[in-house]
Every structure is written in structure tokens, then in C-alpha cells.
Amino acid sequence: MLFNSLEFFCFLAIVYLAYRILPFHWQNRMLLVAGYVFYGWWDVRFLFLIAFSTTIDFSIGLLMEERHMPARQRLTVSLFLIGAAFFFLCPAWSALAVTDVEMTTFLTPQKMGLQVLVGTITFVLIANFLIDRISRMPKERRRKILILCSLFVNLGFLGFFKYFNFFIDSGENAFRTIGIDPTSLRLAVVLPVGISFYTFQSLSYTIDVYRGRIVPTSRFWDFALFVAYFPPLVAGPIERAWHLLPQLSVPRRIRLAQSMDGIVLILLGLFKKVAIADGVAPAVDSVFTSSGAVSQSDVVFATLLFAVQIFCDFSGYSDIARGVSKLFGIELIVNFHLPYFSKNPSEFWRCWHISLSSWLRDYLYIPLGGNRLGGTRTYFNLFLTMLLGGLWHGAAWNYVLWGAYQGSLLCGHRLFTHGRETLPTSVEAVSGTTDLHGGAVRAPRLLPDWISTPLRIVVFFIFCCYGWLLFRAHSFDQIRAFTALLFGFGAGGPSVISKPTTAASLGIIVLSLLQFCDYRAQRLESFERWPPALQGLLYATLIFILVMGTSNAPVQFIYFQF
Fold first, then answer.
1. What's the pLDDT score for residue 530?
2. Could you tell me which residues come within 8 angstroms of residue 491 by beta carbon, excluding any fewer than 6 positions away?
3. Are 187 and 165 in contact (CB under 8 A)?
4. pLDDT reported for residue 159
5. What is the DSSP-derived secondary structure letter of residue 190?
């Protein structure tokens, strides 16, 4: 179910009406059902993965702190998982036209539903038997075993569905050398939408419990809602338990100002997505999907337009998610903070996809040692973190190359600035510290700020855009060809790029002005402080351009594939 579809707004209207009528505890149950309906609209069968992660991580969280899991909770969790296997996998949902996704024999309900159900029942019986054994272990040993189980289950699902075929294809030559046909090992399964987002969200809960940062919840249905809360479910932001769970565990008071802010965010998100991102998508595709030669100007303009597209597409989704959540009295974290006004890579990663960059910082970079183990190890940790961050985005080598490029930028920036200037902009997005550069000293200013700041923004934006070329390219051959054209090498072809729509062109102008106003005011949505008449003019302009943009061909949100 897409945020920019009529069916979603019908769904939202029903959910919101029910939410306002129901008492608190039933509100949470209803939102949980809504989350499953929202995700199941794409494919009901993959709801079993969400249910499995939910039951595993909830149980592990409790067992890490308590020796015994109450019998009532064990029964609830067990029946929930078995019921999920039966309801989501056994019926022939495709025959009822509930899903448009064609599955292979690996997950065909008619052939596998019963087997999975039997396997789930067997798993539940074994798990309940092992719980009694695990509960008698010393606490520290028990906690280590349980966190390893959580890592194995969550990363196992993610690795299997997202990366299994990628690694099989990558090792094709090695398999052929030993006489194995790699095509026989490939599994033609569909990547579950948003699996990277809800996997990281659920996994962060058990890691935080293990580290003692949060107390595990004993309320199963609240935790199930935390994993399946529908606004951020498929494309973030990646919420943390310490931020979202407390809001789900207490009654919410819906304030008029909060609801109005939510409506404005929804409008702004739709404006970014429908009018701008979908309006420039055909121009970007006309170059990056071209099978023939393109011109140097095509590569430049297509890359610039993709920088606009991916920002408007992804931040638009985050704005809509935050806005919808505000209607329920629930606040989500901000995922973007003027990233294209960044002056260096460390600042960029504090402002772009903040929920992911902070996740990588807290659960990967810092455990690797951060900047505490010397300069060489710091560079290694930075590079590896961004390399894996690139792989998180997708099972393709261009994403790995993009991650390596971002890691190189961070390492290069640290190497260049270390000991030269005082930088509170010290790769906090990855390191979580403001002294990563090791107590650097202030360098003499060669240019006044009113010249150096715009210059640094423009220079880094150029580096950022080349990264987007790596991200968007569909092959190494295309990367080589486009890079050669950018530097004036190779033979270019005739121009093939199509023009963005009028709505997109007008939208880019309006959004650029809004972003500049936010940058000058050093706060997001600074227009909320404008005079009422000026605000009204802005909202009317956004609505007008949005209506124009409805003629754009709808494009799926880019980050759904991750």
C-alpha cells in the first residue's frame, strides 16, 4: 500500500476514525491489526517473517532479564506464532487476488504452507523445552546465548532473502571451478518489502536490552505494535525502542496543534514525492536505463536530477510517516535535516537518513572500537561501517562501491582535517563522539565565512552527486562509461534525456526556497513561524503544484526495495 495512493487514504481514514472512538488498549490492538493489513496489502505471506521476529525478540528480551517467562506469556507468544503460520501461509491468498506478487515453489502456500505450519509447531515445542534449560544457566552466559540467537534469527532472515542469490552469483566462477552449476543453487524468491528496516528496528531492541540501556517490556502486544507500527514499517525511519515503546505503552493525548503539524507534513511529503520525485524520475531513467551512448550533459543533469529524486522520494516518505504518526499522537524521529547544505561527509551523515547512520554508529562502529583504538583502527572502522552500510541498501556491487566511496570520503575528510581545525562536525553520525578528530586545533581562516561556507557546500555537493551516480548506475560498465564522460574521456552520444514535468520544475524551485529558509533559520519547517497570510499562500502553492503533479506516472518509493 503506497502512501501516495487513494487506497491508503481510505485506509488511513478508517484507522483514524476507529482510533478516535476506541479506548487506549483497543487503540493499540487496532493499530497492530492496521500494521499487518498495511504490510499484507503487498503480500500476506511475508507477515509471517514479522510475526516470527516479533515473538523471538520479545521472548529473548524477557529471558535476558528474568529467569522464567510466565506461562501465560509463553502461551500467548506460542499461539501467536502458530496462528501466524496458519493464517498467513496456509490459505491460497493469490487465488483471492490479495497479492500481486508471483511466488515460486519455495514459498508457494499450496506446497509449503502445511510444512511451515508443522515446522512452526515443532519449533515452538522445542523452544519451550529449551527455555526451561536456558533459564537455569548463569545470567551472563544466558544473556550471551540469547543475544546470539536474536542476531542469528534477524540477520539470518535478512541475509537469506536479501543476499543469498547475490553471494551465489558473486561466487559463480568459484562454483564452476569445482563443477557446480550456480544456477541450480539460486532461489527465485521475492525480497520482502522493507525487511532491512523492520529487522534493524527489532534487532536494536534486543541489543539495547542486552547492554542494559532499556528494561524489556512484558507487554507482548505493545512490542508487536512497536515492530509492526505501520507509518515507518517499510521505509523508516528506523525507530528505537527507548523512543517509540514508551509512547505506545501509555495513553496518548491528541492535540490540535500536533494534528495540524501532521497534516502539513503529509502535504509536504506528498508534494516532494508526487510532484517532484515522480516528475523527474522519467528524466533520470531516460539516461540511466539507456542502452546506447549518452552525452556528457546527459550524465551531469541526470545525476543532479537523481540527487533531487532520491531526496524528495525518501524524505517525502519520512515526512508522510511522521505526519501520519502525529495524527495518532505519536512522534517519530526526524530522518533528514537539510543534508544538501552539508559542508563535508561527516556533516552529511548527521543529516541524511539519520536513523540508519545513528544505528550504524551505535551497533556497528562503536562496538568495533570507534575512535578509541588508534588512528589506523579508526580509519578501518569508518570504512568498514560505511561499506556494510552500502551493502545494507541492496544486494548489488554498485551499492558496495557506493559504501566504499562514502567510507573513503569520511576517512579522507578525517585525514585532511585532523589537527587542522576545531570540528564539532566530527563524524558524529558514525562515531557518536564530537572528538573523533582527536582534539584538533583551529586553523587560520583563508577566506571569510560568507565565501568559504557556500564554496564548501557546493564542492561537497559535487562529491555527493558522484556518489549518487554510483548508487543509481545499473552496472560497472555504466559507471566506467559515465565517469569517463564526466572527465572528458570517451565518445559521447546524442542527448537522450527527457525533460522533467512542469510540476517537478516548479516544485524544485519552491522546495529549494523552503530548504534555504530552513537553513537560514537553522530549523526544519521554519515556515511555521511565518505570518498566517504567507503560510496560507505557501500551502495553496504546494497544493496547486501537487495537483499538477498527479498527472505524473506513479513511481514506487525507492527505499521500498531495501
1. 93
2. 293
3. yes
4. 86
5. P
Helix (H, G, I), strand (E, B) or coil at 433: coil
**CA-based nearest residue to 202, from 226, 236, 219:** 226
Half-sphere exposure of 424 (CA within 13 A, CB side): 0
Residue 173: other Cβ atoms inside 10 A: 8
State the Cα–Cα distance between residues 304 and 299, nearest whole angstrom: 9
- Per-residue pLDDT of 350-380, as tens digits, reads 999 999 999 999 999 999 998 888 888 999 9
Tell me: the pLDDT tens digits for 413-442? Answer: 998 887 554 433 333 444 343 333 333 444
On whether the CB atoms of residues 330 and 395 are closer than 8 A, the answer is no
Report DSSP letters for 3-70, one per residue. TTSHHHHHHHHHHHHHHHHS-HHHHHHHHHHHHHHHHHTT-GGGHHHHHHHHHHHHHHHHHHH-S---
Which residue in the block uniquely carries the three cell numbers 585532511?
Answer: 416
Q: How far apart are CA 235 and CA 544, in angstroms?
A: 27
The three three-digit cell numbers of residue 445, written as one number:
581562516
Catalytic residues: 393
Q: Within a 10 A sphere around the Cβ of 453, how many other Cβ atoms? A: 13
Q: How far apart are CA 466 and CA 482, in angstroms?
A: 10
Q: What is the DSSP letter of 160?
A: I
- Kindly write down the DSSP assignment for every residue of 409-431, as one continuous string: HHHHHHHHHTTTS--S-SSHHHH
pLDDT tens-digit readout, 297-344: 999 999 999 999 999 999 999 999 999 999 999 999 999 999 999 999
Largest Cα–Cα separation, the chain: 73
The answer on pLDDT for 51 being more than 80 is yes
Say what the pLDDT of residue 109 is.
47
